[in-house]
């Protein structure tokens, strides 16, 4: 959105002189506005599946509920709606945890080779559609100072997106490598329909979606990349999203490796 300039004026009357103090409140206004929008969006996202659930419960309570075929069909839909609410609440909790940890340095020594392998097995084991198209190109990388749970979430979210928005029967390629400057590079490339450039800067905003219908149909919460951004920031890393419409998207994350990026202190 547009960033409105907002000033607060304070006048100090000193008898013979008057001091006019202008304070730039633009930043805090934006933060407050974002918080209000966030609560409104989150409530709306929860209200929709909840209204649907209540509707089905009501229908099942009258005669329709006695037909086993209808019951089965409705219970399946109700299960999907409840799961959608559960995913949303879990993502909201994750996001608030990561935000609460913002100023706390992550301090686990995380071996990304092992973590990626765990996530790979979870993705395949979860019976996710298209899991067979996952390709992993892994090279040994130095450990990073990090938070294992949050880095696992980051991996799930970026690989999950590539699987959700990639085209059927096209591969999703994951790469893990060390760069010459000591940074560890994680990237995920898909061959989906890509993202028009004007949307790219906004993808990490909470609930921002290019195509809400598609996101919802794929079970998306609209919070995945917001979580990724916060995890990357907490780990002092970098996030880059590159996309070509019609060709696909590549998400790249750089994290400081424990060796190389942080040279040992000089010995005197
Ligand atoms: P969602 O739960 O909607 O997937 P995300 O925060 O993970 O939420 O992503 C935000 C939006 O960015 C998605 O709704 C989708 O429009 C777009 N997006 C994310 N990853 C990709 C991708 N690999 N290809 C195309 N679009 C993507």
Automatic annotation (TrEMBL):
It catalyses: ATP + protein L-histidine = ADP + protein N-phospho-L-histidine. It is an enzyme of class 2 (transferase). The keyword Metal-binding does not apply. Residues 41-259 form the Histidine kinase domain. It comes from the Bacteria. Keywords: ATP-binding, Kinase, Nucleotide-binding, Phosphoprotein, Transferase, Two-component regulatory system. GO terms for molecular function: ATP binding. Its EC number is 2.7.13.3. This is histidine kinase. It comes from Sphingomonas rustica. The lineage of its organism: Bacteria, Pseudomonadati, Pseudomonadota, Alphaproteobacteria, Sphingomonadales. The chain holds residues 140 to 407 of 407 of the full protein.
């Amino acid at each position: 959105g547009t960033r409105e300039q907002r000033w607060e004026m304070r006048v100090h009357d000193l008898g013979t002189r008057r001091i006019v103090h202008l304070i730039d409140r633009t930043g805090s206004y934006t933060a407050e506005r974002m918080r209000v929008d966030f609560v409104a969006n989150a409530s709306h996202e929860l209200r929709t599946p909840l209204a649907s659930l209540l509707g089905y419960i009501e229908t099942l309570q009258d005669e329709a509920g006695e037909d086993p075929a209808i019951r089965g069909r409705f219970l399946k839909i109700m299960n999907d709606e409840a799961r959608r609410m559960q995913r949303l609440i879990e993502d909201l909790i994750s996001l608030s945890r990561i935000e609460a940890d913002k100023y706390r340095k992550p301090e686990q020594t995380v071996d990304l080779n092992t973590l990626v392998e765990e996530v790979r097995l979870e993705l395949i084991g979860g019976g996710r559609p298209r899991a067979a198209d996952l390709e992993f190109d892994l090279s040994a990388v130095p450990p990073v100072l990090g938070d294992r749970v949050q880095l696992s979430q980051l991996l799930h979210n970026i690989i999950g997106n590539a699987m959700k928005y990639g085209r059927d029967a096209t591969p999703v390629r994951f790469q893990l490598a060390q760069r010459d400057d000591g940074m560890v590079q994680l990237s995920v490339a898909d061959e989906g329909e890509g993202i028009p450039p004007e949307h790219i800067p906004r993808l990490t905003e909470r609930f921002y979606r290019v195509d809400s219908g598609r996101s919802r149909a794929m079970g998306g919460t609209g919070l995945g990349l917001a979580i990724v951004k916060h995890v990357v920031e907490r780990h002092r890393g970098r996030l880059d999203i590159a996309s070509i419409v019609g060709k696909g998207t590549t998400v790249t994350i750089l994290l400081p490796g424990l060796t190389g990026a942080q040279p040992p202190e000089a010995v005197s």
